[in-house]
Amino acid sequence: MLKINGQPDPSIIHSYDQHKPDILRVLRKLVIKDQVTNDEWQDLFHHVHMVCSWDSTGCQRLIRCIEREFYDGYISPLKHRLKSVDDGYQQLKEYVENWTDFTKHCIRLPMAFQQLDLATRDALLKGKFKSSSSFQLVQDNGKSAMKFKFYNNNLSQTPQQQKHERPLIPIDFKNKNQYSLVRCILVRQWADRILNPNIDRLSNSIKELIIKERCGFIIDATLITGFRQSLAYLEELRIIDYHQNHMAQFERMYVESIEVFYSSISDEYLKEYGVVRYITWALSKFEREEQKALQYLEANSASLKKVAEACNRALIKNFVEQILCASRNFIQTNQSDSLKLIFKFFSKIDGLVEKLLEELRRHFVSSGLACLTNLDSTQLGKPDLFVEKLLEVYCEFDGIVKVVFEDDIRACLMLEKALSLIINDPHVFMSYNNNSNSNIQDNENGSSTDVVAKSDPEARCAESLAHYCNILFRKSPLSRKLSNEDFTTRLDQLYMIIKLLKNKEAFIRFHKQHLVKRLIPDATINLDKEEEFVNRLKDVSGMPLDEINELLRMFKDLKTSELLATKFAKIFKPANAMESVNNNNTISNISSQISDRLSIQDGSGQLQSINVRVLNPSAWSKKFDKSLIALPDEIIMFMPIYESFYKDQYEGRELEWCHHLSNGVLSFKNSNGNKYDLEVTAPQLSILYAFNDQPYSLKTFNELRLLSNLSTNELRRTIWSLVSNPKLRVQLINCNPPMETQKDLNRGTNLYSINHNFVLIKNGKPQTKGRVSFIGKLQI
């Protein structure tokens, strides 16, 4: 059969020319968005399938047809409409509205030509697909995902005029609706004919909208987001190379507009309203730009980082010195809210917080040293006053760090550096060194009267801290008035200061001396807290571990002694073991290796309990006075009993008794029948026991020396503690004639006797009972 011109070739069954009229009729309806019936949809699917299946050139010709019809029916009219709009805002609005309509085409048309994607894929795999003048299909390393190569063809040009190739475009035939060949054709035409010719004018309109919005005007934000979505859609498809530049240019334009806009108004705002209001305003702009960046740009860290950097340059970096200058005044006047605002502001840029902290560190050091150096010699000489002032400085600075910086690690490190400079500055005690000539003396209540003079100034703070720990841990007025919570807080504050000491060896040396004086007479308020504190010191960097371990062994000795006391109590019951004992006093004898404690709980005069402490001299590291003291017979009788028990427990070990370290409680009854408990040391007991058989006798100094077996100096100190106790208005021993100094006590004419009219007075009123401590300081 012969082919007639203008008619389909009858030799080809289902050729493109045979089905073209039916395909064009429905295609043109789809392009102009006319209603398409179900029958027309079904007929379209059929015609496309026939063409792609039977005509070897049908796919190429069909693609060319779709490209031409979409250009003529949709792209070309839109191009002329946009070109005719003079107002940039109206052009942008027209573009965004038509972009929304265009995305619907990108869904409908690929659905109508699904068979085209399948046919081109099969043809490519079989090597039967022929390249056209406008596109080429190539296989991507044998994978099912193929790449579609567009040529830069102008529909009005000939193939010979087309020279420039576009990059490869991936087409995933498994997802026909998202990455179809037809969709790539449509999007390429939009990019070439609509977006690219108008990109500059559209970008300027976007920029004007953004500036208006920053100035407070209400705008249609959908125009900005719609324009950006069109660029993002092209980037997602990777349809042409320049769309990526458009997206980058859009982001660059947006970021640059931030810096230009705020740079033009921030300086005037700062001058007019001051630092605090400026920072508040700038922080609000920071927050706004971050929110808008999420709306107008890609929601990724890279885009947000660029926006933040632009805000930093425009709002912060140009005004750092002015803000730091204002911060110095805020620091001096303790304006925490303003400082907190600056800290939040400077946190936007790396390195600026450190500059603020450096200003604060200088203030801490200067004000802290000024506070301590302004103390007079009396205050410097009393460890409790000095350390409490030091704690006030620490609490003030720590409060600023907590409130302003919310315990930021950088602020905490700065505080430690500042406190370290204050604590370890030897100049604080220089004036006191030149004026003081007395030593520290512990009062009977556990406080201290003076700091050691002429000692190393660098060790002075460590020494004062050790004395304050002694006041805090022992039974003193300070420790009694503190609640458990206050005590723990005060201890934590001390711990933080001790951590910053450079001369930690000096602190441990002094702390150990006081610890021994607390543990031996059982003068600590809480043994468990003492041990816990030492364990915490073990974790401090720079602490001498050998000395710390010795302190821990001291606590271990006390626990071992408690176990021995329990065993001893089970074997020897005091009432049965010493039925002949009858005495109205009790005494606790403690030595570097052994301590025994006898206590009376009732008025019968019978020994009720015995407690023994065994201490290791290597841990306590003390050379105690081991000279004998005249003690009651009951104690002398008890000593061999315990020695025998100890040898049974630890074969080969020997005990040495050091009575000068002993202390205990005497029960005293005055002439009115009032009973008082007297806390005394062993030397004081030996003197009082000399009057036990002859309560109303008068004794000379030499008689007391023979009866007590004390040395002259020791006897003089002990008598003075009984005849001139500063806490008592009525003394326990009378001296006739009265002596004004301790040196005059050994005169041969002096006579000493028990004051049977002794009474305890509190608040100006005599007490019928009570407890009095005569233990000033054990000779340890």
Automatic annotation (TrEMBL):
Matching InterPro entries: Cullin, Cullin-like_AB, Cullin_homology, Cullin_homology_sf, Cullin_N, Cullin_repeat-like_dom_sf
Signal peptide bounds: none
Keywords attached to this entry: Isopeptide bond, Ubl conjugation, Ubl conjugation pathway
Domain Cullin family profile: 460-723
A biological process from GO: ubiquitin-dependent protein catabolic process
Presence of keyword Chaperone: no
GO molecular function, one term: ubiquitin protein ligase binding
Statement: the UniProt record of this protein carries the keyword Ubl conjugation: yes
Biological pathway: Protein modification; protein ubiquitination
Family membership noted in the UniProt record: Belongs to the cullin family.
Protein name: Cullin-5
